[in-house]
Amino acid sequence: MRAGIVTGSYRWIGVLLASVAMAAFPVAGACGTSPGGKLSIEASLDPSAVAPGGVATLTVQVRSAGLNLPDVTLPPLTVDVQRPNEPPRRTPVTAERAGTSQSFSMMNNAVERSATTVYRILPQSEGTIRIPALRISMGKETAQSSPLTLTVSRTAASQSQAPSGAIGGPAKAPGGKPEVFVQATVDRSRVFWNQQLLLRLRLYSRVDILGDVDWKPPPTTGFWTEGLGPPRRGRVLVHGVPYEVMEIPTALFPTKTGRLTIGAAQVRVRVSRVIQPPDPWSMLAVPEVVPQDLALASDPVTVVVDPLPPGAPLGFQGAVGDYKMALHVDSLTVRAGDPVTVRATIRGTGNIATVRDPGIRARGATRQYVVGSSTKVDRSGDQLQGERETDVAFIADQPGALTVLPVAFAWFDPEGGRYRSQRSDSVRVTVLPGTGEPAQAGRAGQGIAAAAALRRKPGPFGTLSPDPPPASVALLGLSALAYGGALAVAGARRKRLRDPRMARLGVLESLLTQDLSRADSLASRNEPARAAAIAEHALLRGSGIRYDVDLAGVARAERMETLRSRGADEAEVSGVESLLDSLGAIAYAPLETRVQDARQAIRAVRDRLERYRRELAS
Amino acid sequence: MSARVVLSLALALAFALTIAPLAEAGTENPQGQDRPDAAALYNAGTEALARRDLGPAVTFLLAAYRIDPRARDIRTNLGIARARVEESQGSEDHASHPAPPPIALSWTESWYLALAFAMAGALISWLAAMRPRSTRLLITGCVFFAVGILSFGALFLRAHEEAVHPTAVVVAPVLEVGPAPDERPLLPYLLGAGDEVRLGPTRGDLVQVRVSGNAIGWAKRSGLWRVADAPRYTGNSGV
């Protein structure tokens, strides 16, 4: 309820406006007017029911005809707490004076002043707050407002709460849309360990916000938190209703796995309330703006954090995101004793502040120092970006070379779901002698023997070309031909030796050239008996080769029969046997004819074997 | 049989090593580039070594070593030059840098040694072919001939590698070996004077540099001397 007072000739208009206002604004209020009509006071309460911890606004408007305006004092307020089985008790209530505005109007030589004072009532426990009648007096005029009652109850307050997710406090749009509410959202509900999660904390408002918003960030236990710049502002449509939006983005990096909860964010905001002037026809009666404080909270958000998959590469130190590494050496040529600074820069998206520096090492350095590390973070976008630089200085005291070994960096790419790594090339830095070091030209190095003296005579002469000399190529060709010829000859010879007929001819040849020659020799040396024995053996073997049979040790009759069976005619058999008889008789021949007989028999054997050879060769 | 084999090999070696100088006598030109003087190259390298001009020193001494590899003075000074190169590059084991081996053959000697083995193999094979039951002798001849042919092939491969990727020495104090202008930019490798590399194809004033069979980038041709061209630089300081 709300009531107003209008003085002078426009009272009926005030009554009309009061009726309209009562229909439009469902608030509790009370007013009182002095008997002379020169003084009035009006008190209203908004809302009439509030939950413990909430805020109710008490607006007191005092109007006076004249220049003097009496002051209003709000007495101490208490909550009447009545619980079952307990005696009633009273607890004090905090009531703050939020502000006062005054107005002044003059019409038809009549001056009127008014003052509006706003109090904030902050009850902490359930019960009933009774606001007594507020009394003012000026001269003989006295007016007082009607007492008001504020119900502090969760049940009563919930009847006027905003829909789920919207905390509108006492202010409600006519269509049910909250005037002010806060919302917390995340860009994904499932992330990997140390992967960025974007938390958007948004304050939607359809009324003017006074001053700064008091943000109390949500509890983020289990997250590494990085703010993403100052609050952002904009306008959006929510269910067709335009809202001013203030957003605070925050990057969260889970430091634990499992189900993690982002708590409720607390927002305290002061909005402006417009109080209509008591005299709408007055030129000086502009609408009064009274601030109102609201406390809002967002809903908790739960996300699932997965651990990183197995198979991390060597050197992985927990970096998660999208990175690139660059290596820079400040100088490729230095003097001994001067430092060479190597800078490893890791740039990319992710929790760059927690990226561990890669190991930078060098070969040939006497000393090395970590110059420093720095991290630059770019919070302008929705993704936390930045770069981390690590500087290491190497110093070589001796001239020569200093080699910066390859630097490796590994990280986990959550978008690709795999580990990645990057490895730089090695860098070689030439170390020149120091400025104060004596020149070493012409001096043998430490541990190096002295150089040999110059030569006085020319030569030898040679060639620096590795090409083969033409003569060697020609000779190699000839050698290859000769080798091929040797192989061909050896192969033909081997093939011929494998023929049985050639083998028999070879044996006959051996008998003729070796055995019979030896028999001749023995006969010449007056050993006819031994010569005859050798000739007899040669004849038997030669006959056996001719007719392809072994006659050694065979009896005479069997020998003759064998030769006949192998194709020898009767004359041949008789000739062989006769010759064998002659050779056997030499041992018994007279001494004076024995040698002659032996030579004659050996000659006959030779003739026969040569005939055999001719027959086999044909 | 062993006596015949040794005799054949000795005959082949004697023939090859005797005919080698005779075969090349027609091309000898002590004043020209076809038959450079090892002593002149050695003296130029030794003088450069005294000046600590390591790039030319290594180049000249390497060229002299190719002609006269068993000369003690050349081996000594080449070892010193290489040790100083490593010393200048910060290596700690330069004092134990080994000198070139004393038993070494020049390119020409290597060719004729391989030829001698092939000739001995052919000769022994003929001996085996002329005798009955000479299988072992024939196998010995085949082994000799195979050794000669394989050695010849290995030398031919080395000669081909040298023709395609000639050996060169860095003569500039610091030579940057980086990517070609049309390649992805990378940090350059730095080579010091005296470093021995091989060369690849050329692009304008750039030449591809190879180390251990791998191309590491491109460098200015003016910073490198080919060992085969060393006689051209005799008398040049190389700086």
Structural account:
The complex is a heterodimer of chains A (618) and B (239). The longest helix of chain A has 28 residues, at 470-497. Chain A has four domains: 8-158, Immunoglobulin-like (Sandwich), CATH 2.60.40; 180-305, Immunoglobulin-like (Sandwich), CATH 2.60.40; 316-432, Immunoglobulin-like, CATH 2.60.40; 500-617. With 618 residues, chain A is α+β, with helices and mostly antiparallel strands. Residues 1-30, 160-175 and 436-448 of chain A have low confidence and may be disordered. In chain A, α4 runs antiparallel to α8 (591-617), α5 (528-546) runs antiparallel to α7 and α5 (528-546) runs parallel beside α8. In chain A, strands 1-2-4-7-6-5-8-11-3 form a nine-stranded mixed sheet. A six-stranded mixed sheet of chain A has the order 27-28-25-23-30-31, with no helix packed on it. In chain A, strands 12, 14, 16, 17 and 18 form a five-stranded antiparallel sheet that branches. Chain A is 23% helix and 39% strand. Chain A has helices at 11-24, 154-158, 470-497, 500-524, 528-546, 556-565, 570-585, 591-617, and strands spanning 28-33, 39-46, 49-50, 56-65, 77-81, 89-107, 110-122, 127-131, 135-138, 141-144, 148-152, 180-186, 190-192, 197-205, 209-216, 223-227, 232-238, 241-254, 258-262, 266-275, 288-297, 301-306, 316-329, 333-335, 339-350, 362-363, 367-378, 385-395, 400-404, 408-413, 418-423, 427-432. In chain A, β17 (232-238) and β18 form a beta hairpin. Chain B is of the alpha+beta class. Among the domains of chain B are: 2-26 and 105-164; 167-233, SH3 type barrels. Helices cover 51% and strands 15% of the residues of chain B. Chain B contains six helices and seven strands, in the order ααααααβββββββ. Chain B has helices at 2-24, 38-50, 54-67, 72-88, 107-130, 135-164, and strands at residues 167-170, 174-177, 189-192, 196-203, 206-211, 214-220, 224-226. In chain B, the strands form two sheets. A five-stranded antiparallel sheet of chain B has the order 6-5-4-1-7. A two-stranded antiparallel ribbon of chain B has the order 2-3. In chain B, β5 (206-211) and β6 form a beta hairpin. In chain B, α1 crosses α5, α2 runs antiparallel to α3 and α2 (38-50) runs parallel beside α4. The radius of gyration of chain B is 22 Å and the shape is elongated. The termini of chain B are far apart. The chains are: A alpha+beta (618), B alpha+beta (239).
